[in-house]
Design the sequence.
């Protein structure tokens, strides 16, 4: 499959800066400081995109506010992965008709993955007349231009055509936190798993140049960020389109060697592209977290084939085995789809068995949701919904037991935790393996790596005590 990368030129970016300036002048002439609200749905990729949207809004003179009421601009950055995600957006979009009635000058933007689907744009055109702008992820960098247009001209904007291979460097970002940061290293997906909408709404895979990624990480570390997560739908195919001879493991190694105290993570890995070299790189550099999110989707070879996942159960298990051999404390997590069309009780039993064999620390489980335009959506799907729900519950029961056992193994151990926030009287943080820990402590510890002795657990988290004099273990 041909991959084209159309890097946005300096002139195009400069033109957008011009629009930022014009939008600021518009508001100065009104003698007003405008406000903007961005609501994010979906995955970390969308969270990262929203940080860019907020950065662009600030560059246009907007102050970011905490809700849609009274905001001059409201942006919904949407997700299309499952029907439920789309329903939530349409429901919340409906409520915006009221905020707009109370503030008629409010401008409403819909962007993100839902806006990459023609049928969604059509529905917005017909049934949501108060939505001013609808643009897909390829047009994110053009936000200043759209803002300027809706403020100065009548008419709605629908920028929903696919632009192959867009990469826009140098966009401003307003990051959510000061401890943890997302860094997108690539965009799009080429895998076309038969159930998945992502390749249709985010386009083909394209990688940012390694020097741009490394520069961004360097800047984050210098600014004091302690936890960097590299993002892509399939990070293991990073660099294939660039032809520079730099693969994902190489990129990871280069970032890991930047001086400073920080932890490096990444997601998501596709099992067909995850390499032993990657595990070796993780084992070699102490600042790469021993955490691996490796979505399996199903434990049945028949279903994996129907999903177009391009690996089988045995290959998947060999990756797990190798990862544990070179990093005995590695934390594996996964995604599983229950009730893919044609999944039998036998297929599902194979998924349960796989979970028992791997013993993940945590699992993200989803009931299959047909996505318009994907091959799986036209497959016969005779399994009743009640049966799918029952399988889902059975899987959860198995996993909850395993998660509990895994968490119980932490009790009495002292682990290194990056304190990243507070929740009531407790501080919250993550172990190197990404497990959530709550412990009493001084908020001054936020942003620091601290030793915590684990004393208790639930299915989803650990509790413990700050133990400044103790040696730590990773994991
Ligand atoms: N690129 C990542 C996944 C991104 S989507 C990867 O390949 O691992 C996150 C998860 O949503 C997927 O792993 C899958 O488990 C789930 N998912 C995707 N499409 C779905 C659908 N149509 N119905 C239910 N779950 C789905
Ligand atoms: Fe979707 Fe598969 Fe691509 Fe992940 S790898 S985004 S599941 S098509
Ligand atoms: Fe959703 Fe798009 Fe992410 S569909 S899961 S927001 S890539």
Sequence:
């Amino acid at each position: 499959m041909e991959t084209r990368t159309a890097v946005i030129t300096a002139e195009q970016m400069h033109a957008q800066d011009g629009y930022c300036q014009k939008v600021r002048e518009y508001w100065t002439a009104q003698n007003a400081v405008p406000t903007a609200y961005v609501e994010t749905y979906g995955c970390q990729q969308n969270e990262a995109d929203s940080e860019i949207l907020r950065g662009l809004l600030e560059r246009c003179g907007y102050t970011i506010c905490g809700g849609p009421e009274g905001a001059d601009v409201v942006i919904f950055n949407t997700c299309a992965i499952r029907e439920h995600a789309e329903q939530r957006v349409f429901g919340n979009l409906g409520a915006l008709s009221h905020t707009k009635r109370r503030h008629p000058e409010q401008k409403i933007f819909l962007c993100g993955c839902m806006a990459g689907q023609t049928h969604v744009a059509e529905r917005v055109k017909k049934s949501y007349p108060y939505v001013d702008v609808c643009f897909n992820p390829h047009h994110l960098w053009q936000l200043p231009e759209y803002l300027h247009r809706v403020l100065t001209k009548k008419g709605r904007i629908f920028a929903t055509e696919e632009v192959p291979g867009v990469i826009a460097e140098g966009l401003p970002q307003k990051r959510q936190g000061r401890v943890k940061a997302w860094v997108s290293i690539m965009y799009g997906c080429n895998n076309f798993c038969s159930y998945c909408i992502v390749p249709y709404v985010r386009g083909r895979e394209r990688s940012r140049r390694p020097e741009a990624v490394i520069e961004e990480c360097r800047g984050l570390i210098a600014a004091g960020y302690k936890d960097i997560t590299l993002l892509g739908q399939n990070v293991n195919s990073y660099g294939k389109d660039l032809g520079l001879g730099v693969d994902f493991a190489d990129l990871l190694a280069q970032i890991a060697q930047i001086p400073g105290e920080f932890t490096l993570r990444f997601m998501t890995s596709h099992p067909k592209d995850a390499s032993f070299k990657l595990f070796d790189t993780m084992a070699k550099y102490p600042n790469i977290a021993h955490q691996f999110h490796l979505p399996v989707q199903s434990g049945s070879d028949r279903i994996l084939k129907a999903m177009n996942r391009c690996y089988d159960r045995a290959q998947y298990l060999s990756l797990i085995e190798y990862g544990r051999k070179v990093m005995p404390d590695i934390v594996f997590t996964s995604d599983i789809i229950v009730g893919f069309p044609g999944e039998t009780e036998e297929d599902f039993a194979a998924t349960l068995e796989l979970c028992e064999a791997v013993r993940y620390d945590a699992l993200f489980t989803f009931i299959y949701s047909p996505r318009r335009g994907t091959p799986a959506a036209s497959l016969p799907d005779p399994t009743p919904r009640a049966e799918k729900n029952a399988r889902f519950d059975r899987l959860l029961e198995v996993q909850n037991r395993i998660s509990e056992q895994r968490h119980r193994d932490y009790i009495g151990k002292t682990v290194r935790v990056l304190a990243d926030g507070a929740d009531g009287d407790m501080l919250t943080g993550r172990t190197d393996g990404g497990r959530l820990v709550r412990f009493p402590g001084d908020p001054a510890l936020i942003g620091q790596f601290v030793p915590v002795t684990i004393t208790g657990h639930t299915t989803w988290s650990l509790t413990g005590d700050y133990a400044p004099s103790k040696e730590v273990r990773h994991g």
Summary: The first strand starts at residue 6 and ends at 7.
